[in-house]
Amino acid sequence: MIKLSGISLRIWAPFALSITLFILAAGFYYPQKQTNIFYQNSNSKIKELAKTVALGVELALSADNFEGLKKTIELATSSSEFEFISIVEQQGGEESVFLVNPDTFIKSLTLKKDISRFLYESYPIDSDVLKGYVLIAVSKKYIKDKVYALNFPVYVFLSSLLLVSLIVFLFLADSISKPIRYLKGVANNLEQEIYDISIEKMDGVDEVSELNNAFLSLRNTLKKAKIRNEEFNKELEDKIRLRTRDLEYAKNQLERAQITSKMGAFEFLIESKKWMYSADLFPLLNLDDKGLNLDWLSFFDNRTQNDIYTFFEDLRLSNEKVIQKDFRLSYSSPNKKEVWITLVGESRFDLQGNIQSIYGTIQDITQRKLYEQEINRLSLVATKTSNSVIITDA
After folding, report:
1. Of 69, 260, 322, 372, which is the most buried if we count CB atoms within 10 A?
2. Residues 6 or more apart whose Cβ sits within 8 Å of residue 26
3. What's the mean pLDDT in 218-230?
4. Alpha-carbon distances, residue 366 vs 12, 167, 280, 301, 327 (angstroms)
5. pTM assigned to the model
6. pLDDT at 257 over 70
7. Where are the beta strands (DSSP E) in the chain?
C-alpha cells in the first residue's frame, strides 16, 4: 500500500508541482504561439488576397463587367475563414459600402472594425469609376477553433503524460521513502528503549545500508548496556535495601539509646524562628506531643525561659562553637514537678559566616541531681557532727 505522507509527500510534492507547472505552461504557451503564427499567416494571406481582389475589381470596373466583379468577390470568400469582403467607396471624405460579400452581412458593420473578433486587411482601389479600397476580414474565432482542433491531440497527450508521471513518481517516491520510514521507526523504538526489534543487516554500500547497519550495531550495544544496567540496578537496589535496613536498625538503636539515656535533640532556625525536635523530646520532658509545632519553652515559667534564652545568647556571642550547661526547669503548670536537664548547644553558620541555626541535645539529669543533692545533704551532716558516720547500702 502506497503511503503518501511524511517523507513520501516531501519527495513527491516538489516533482508533482514542477511537472504540473511545466505541462500547464506548455499547454498555455504552445497554443498561444501557434495562434500568433496563424494570425501572422492569415495577415499575409489576406494582404495578398486584398491586393489581388483590388486588381480584379479595377479590371472589372474598367470593363464595366459587374458580373465579373461579383464573381471576383465570391471567389475570394469561398474559404470559410473569411468573414466578409467589402468594397468601400470614398467620396468627399466620406465612406460608403459599395458591395459586400456575403450579401447577408450588414454593410454598416463592415465600417465598424471590431478588432477583438476579426483580423482586417485593406488595399486601395483607384479607377475612373470608383475610388476607395478593398476590405477583408478574417474571424479570430475560426483561427482559435482551428488551433484548438490542431492541438487537441497535444492536450490529450500532455494530460496523459501528467497523470502517468504523477503516478509513476508516486511509486518511485514511496520506494525511496520506504527504507527511510523503516529506519525512522527503528530510531523511534530505540528512543523508547524497545530493543527487541528485528533489524536485518544490509550488504549495500549506499547511505541507507550504512545507516541501517549503524542502527543494528547501536541496538546491540544498547541491548547489552540495558542488561548491564538492569544487573547494576538490581545490585544497587540490594545494597540500598541492606543499607536501609542497617540505617533503620541504627535509628532504632539510637532511639533506644536516647530513651535509655533520657536524651532528645532540637534545632532552632534563626531566620524563621522555628523549632524542630526529635520525636522523643516532648515525652522526655513530660510535655504534650501535640505541641511539636510550638515553642517548647512556652510550657515553662518565665525564669526558665529567661535562663534558656540567656544560654542561647551566650552561645551566639561566644567564640566557642559548643557550650554546655545544666538547668532546673520549672513548668508553668503547678501540678508538674521540676526537672533537671543538661543542655548542649552548637551553632551552625551559613557561607557568609552568619548563624543559621542552633542545634543540640537535651538530657534529663533529674535523677542524678537528686542523688547529688542527697550526697550533699549527707556530706553536710558528716561535716557538722563529731561522731563517726558510716554510709553504706542495704
Report:
1. 69
2. 158
3. 84
4. 92, 99, 17, 18, 10
5. 0.40
6. no
7. 82-91, 94-101, 118-126, 131-139, 263-269, 274-277, 322-329, 339-349, 355-364
